[in-house]
């Protein structure tokens, strides 16, 4: 795992199992449970799909059409995912319920929930002919069954409901409304219980072998899960403890999604950190989570081993691993918060600096194509807004511009996109698009490129919400064509904002060199530092240059939003804000 980060300090950070915090508070807080770049890269590079939240869909229907003459229909439901090309991919089928126009199917259909993409679902209900009742449902040819109706929705529409249930009218195929009442279909979503369970541990080692000549080793642990093929998949690593043969690491928090079951064997390896990435193995052992719990209960240690030159033999070392704390608990997920009334409030800021080019010229980044071809700014607004709007109940979005000369002749670095001197919100994604198009006629492109004012404005709104409503989390999308000229002021603003319920997504459009911008995104493991030396509480920025996203591999919205649930959870858990009924989470000022 030594090459997971691009710098030495970043490489010493914990990954996937501990919450990284700037001070001693870390000792009492659990893992953020969010996105893990290192582990996901390992999965993707080996053709393995990364872990997503597993959702079970339960289906029921009411007032279905009766297609049978001597009895009632025998309904079965089929669930599909609708792909980008419009094709349907079958996800699963329910059982057949005999003689019922109001079936409540028992068989669940599992779907992997991905926050960062819109996931359209299509539901078909069939009346299964009696001559096929002895045929397994997976073997049934759907063309041989009578079609009862179709319903469509987006998975986000279900999971954002407080009841996690959505009732839809059944229509004819392809969404055509029927003159007859075809009945309704109700979909209920439940996160699989196992995905919420996590184990929190504090571990230490004693009497480790020293691998350095002129100092003591710098040990860290890497924990891997053994897979069916016999290989292993890394699930987390601890931070590096410098110059210490008796290290105590910060708390580890492993989800059941990571270790599978308490009896699954895990490989725990202790390495001496080297900045070259060639870490030296100090020792290893194989234990399950159940074994680690037993070590804690018995207050005993487990000896590390070292592979012997003789095949099949291992050397028992003096060094031991101890489990000082062990607790199993339920870890609230992103969906737990969203379905109990928590919201993501979308905000957008658009670059109106002169480097974008004259909007009237087709080569301008701000050119509005008369034939409807979206420019890069419009694409980013549409793709991100399309996802986040499902998590914002009123769909009223603050929208600003920066770096432009407004009607009064002054250059502003945070002006209301709709041209109003007071109201800064617009109605829906369509409202943002319309305000953007109007602003191009009313605002002259100027400069320079400053992020500080819009970040401070967004932070002000997020900060004000804390006093009266803890269920809101804010997401600011900044779209820009150039490198910022107020880098240190922006860092200062981001460090201050890291304590607030706020994440910032930055899209770079055009051909500028955005390498300086990447310092704002702490994906290298190092958090931002302000001019006064204060370190950001957490990473709140995700930066993506649009040109680096190749068609068919990953969309702008996926690259931007993949870290957002983890950032949301880090904030909520660090403030000990728990999901619950909407009225309980919201307080009066």
TrEMBL record:
Provide the residue span(s) of the region labelled Disordered. Answer: 1-32
Topological category with respect to the lipid bilayer: Lipid-anchor
The organism encoding this protein is Lithocarpus litseifolius
Outline the extent of the VWFA domain.
345-564
Domain named C2 is located at 35-168, 181-306
Low complexity composition bias: which ranges?
A: 23-32
Q: State the name under which the record lists this protein.
A: Protein BONZAI 3-like
One annotated GO molecular function: metal ion binding
PROSITE patterns, alphabetically? C2, VWFA
> What subcellular locations does the record give?
Cell membrane
Predominant location: membrane
Question: Could you tell me the Gene Ontology terms of the biological process aspect for this record?
Answer: cellular response to calcium ion; defense response
Name the family the entry cites. Answer: Belongs to the copine family.
Keywords from UniProt, A to Z, are: Calcium, Cell membrane, Lipoprotein, Membrane, Metal-binding, Plant defense, Repeat
GO CC: one term?
plasma membrane
């Amino acid at each position: 795992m030594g090459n997971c980060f691009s710098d030495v300090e970043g490489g010493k950070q914990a990954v996937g199992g501990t919450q990284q915090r700037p001070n001693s508070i870390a000792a009492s807080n659990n893992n953020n449970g969010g996105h893990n770049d290192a582990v996901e890269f390992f999965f993707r590079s080996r053709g393995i799909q990364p872990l997503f939240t597993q959702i079970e869909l339960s289906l029921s229907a009411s007032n279905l059409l009766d297609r049978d003459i001597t009895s009632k229909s025998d309904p079965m439901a089929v669930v599909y995912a609708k792909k980008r090309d419009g094709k349907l991919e079958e996800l699963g089928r329910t059982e057949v319920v005999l003689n019922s126009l109001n079936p409540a199917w028992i068989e669940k259909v599992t779907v992997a929930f991905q926050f960062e993409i819109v996931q359209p679902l299509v539901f078909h209900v069939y009346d299964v002919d009696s001559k096929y009742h002895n045929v397994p449902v997976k073997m049934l040819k759907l063309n041989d069954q009578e079609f009862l109706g179709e319903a469509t929705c987006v998975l986000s529409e279900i999971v954002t409901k407080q009841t996690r249930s959505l009732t839809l009218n059944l229509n004819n195929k392809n969404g055509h409304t029927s003159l007859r009442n075809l009945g309704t279909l109700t979909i209920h979503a439940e996160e699989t219980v196992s995905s919420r369970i996590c184990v929190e541990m504090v571990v230490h080692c004693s009497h480790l072998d020293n691998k350095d000549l002129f100092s003591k080793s710098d040990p860290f642990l890497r924990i891997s899960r053994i897979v069916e093929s016999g290989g292993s998949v890394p699930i987390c690593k601890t931070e590096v403890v410098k110059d210490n043969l008796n290290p105590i690491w910060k708390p580890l928090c492993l989800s059941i999604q990571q270790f599978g079951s308490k009896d699954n064997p895990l490989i725990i390896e202790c390495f001496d950190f080297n900045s070259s990435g060639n870490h030296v193995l100090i020792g290893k052992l194989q234990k399950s989570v159940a074994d680690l719990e037993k070590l804690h209960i018995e207050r005993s240690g487990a000896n590390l081993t070292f592979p012997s030159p003789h095949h099949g033999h291992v050397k028992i070392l003096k060094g031991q691993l101890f489990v000082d704390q062990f607790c199993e608990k339920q870890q609230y997920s992103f969906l737990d918060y969203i379905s109990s009334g928590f919201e993501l409030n979308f905000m957008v800021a658009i670059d109106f600096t002169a480097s974008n080019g004259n909007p009237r010229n087709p080569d301008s980044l701000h050119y509005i194509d008369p034939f409807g071809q979206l420019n890069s700014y419009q694409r980013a607004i549409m793709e991100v807004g399309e996802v986040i709007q499902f998590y914002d109940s009123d769909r009223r979005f603050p929208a600003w511009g920066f770096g432009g000369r407004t009607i009064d002749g002054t250059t502003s670095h945070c002006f209301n996109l709709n041209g109003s001197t007071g109201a800064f919100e617009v109605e829906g994604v369509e409202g943002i698009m319309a305000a953007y198009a109007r602003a191009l006629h009313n605002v002259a492109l100027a400069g320079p490129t400053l992020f500080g004012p819009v970040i401070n404005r967004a932070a002000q709104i997020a900060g004000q919400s804390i006093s009266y409503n803890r269920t809101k989390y804010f997401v600011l999308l900044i779209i820009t064509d150039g490198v910022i000229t107020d880098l240190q002021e922006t860092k200062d603003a981001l460090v201050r904002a890291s304590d607030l319920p706020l994440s910032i997504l930055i899209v770079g459009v055009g051909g500028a060199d955005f390498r300086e911008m990447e310092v704002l995104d702490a994906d290298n493991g190092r958090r931002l530092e302000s001019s006064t030396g204060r370190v950001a509480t957490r990473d709140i920025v995700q930066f993506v240059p649009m040109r680096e996203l190749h068609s068919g591999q990953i969309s702008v919205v996926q690259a931007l939003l993949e870290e957002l649930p983890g950032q949301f959870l880090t904030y909520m858990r660090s403030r000990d804000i728990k999901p619950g009924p909407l009225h309980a989470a919201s307080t009066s000022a």
